[in-house]
Amino acid sequence: MTKANSRESEYPIDPMFLERWSPRAFTGETIEETQLLTLLDAAHWAPSSSNMQPWRFLYALKGSEHWEEFVSLLVESNQEWAKNASALIFVVSRSFNGPRSEGRSSYTHSFDAGTAWGHLAMQACISGFYAHGMGGIKHEEIKEKLGVPEGYRVEAGIAVGRIADKSILSERYREREFPSQRKPLSEVVFNGHFIGND
Question: Residue 106: which residues within 8 A CB-CB, separation 6 or more?
Answer without folding.
Answer: 49, 52, 54, 94, 95, 96, 97
